Amino acid sequence: MTQRTVLVTGASRGVGRAVAEASLRRGDRVVATGRRSSDLEPLAALGDLVPRVLDVGDEAAIMELGLALQKELDHLDTIFNCAGVYSLQSKRWDNRRTSLETVTDEELVHVFRINAVAPMLLTRVLRPLLAASPSGGRVVNLTSLLGSVSVKDTPGDYAYCASKAALNIMTRGLAAELAGDGIICVAVTPGWVRTEMGGAGASLAPEESASRLLATTDSLTRADSGRLIDEHGGDLPW
Ligand SMILES: NC(=O)c1ccc[n+]([C@@H]2O[C@H](COP(=O)([O-])OP(=O)(O)OC[C@H]3O[C@@H](n4cnc5c(N)ncnc54)[C@H](OP(=O)(O)O)[C@@H]3O)[C@@H](O)[C@H]2O)c1
Q: What's residue 53's pLDDT?
């Protein structure tokens, strides 16, 4: 099989790290991005690594990286938008410290910027490389059940929930806009994963979540574009 070239954000730790590791181990060329090069260096031992420092909250840096990659690569098969934040007050999803009393402009804007805006900007600048993928480019946006509007019945978590709901609807818009380029865009939840965000009591190890994400990504067809997908490959409620 031809080697795939994939880009992973948030490759420093958590689900993004596991996706980068699993992709490298199976022989993919991996553009692994993170905020510190020291976090990425250990990945080089696993395979064909292209490490790139990127703070996804920095629009200029996203554009700079995208333009540099357009010179270095002839195509990109998949972007895994894994970088994410829960809140400014807590890295853990279940601390429930983000209520109406504590939510701020700074919190809402920061969480939206990382979780929803960054995947859009990356997709915009990497569109030509995705369109050049011989197998059809894929944009895999990591979302959450907490972004499902129809099941939201808990208080608080305004920034995180709304940012993932925004990411979901933008993914549908991207699916429609990029269909002509043969690019498949989906929002997929990694499940409840034992990372800094998911906590130690979560049900899935990062490696198991990554393995499911890769299986789902590999199985995507054009008919799947615009879907909101759960950790088993089924449909997540909108
Ligand atoms: N864990 C779960 O149970 C769960 C459930 C549903 C959805 N998700 C989603 O899955 C994705 C991965 O979550 P996770 O559990 O792996 O989270 P995590 O363990 O908290 O890791 C977050 C990742 O995002 C990166 N990141 C945060 N801000 C960044 C920025 N400004 N620029 C670049 N990278 C940044 C972190 O990098 P640093 O090391 O530099 O901070 C880290 O690599 C997220 O989108 C999350 O919302 C997770």
A: 98
61 touches 68 (CB < 8 A) = no
DSSP state of 139: E
What percent of the chain lies above the pLDDT cut of 90? Answer: 90
Q: Where do the domains of the chain lie? A: 5-229
Contacts of 48 (CB under 8 A, 6+ apart): 3, 24, 27, 28, 29, 30
Distance CA 50, CA 8 (A): 10
Q: How far apart are CA 34 and CA 49, in angstroms?
A: 13
Find out whether the beta carbon of 83 lies less than 6 Å from any atom of ligand 1: yes
User: Can you tell me which atom of ligand 1 is nearest the CA of 197?
Assistant: 20
Q: In the CATH scheme, what is the code of domain 5-229?
A: 3.40.50.720
pTM attached to this predicted model: 0.97
202: Cβ below 6 Å to ligand 1?
A: yes
The answer, yes or no, to whether residue 65 has pLDDT greater than 90, is yes
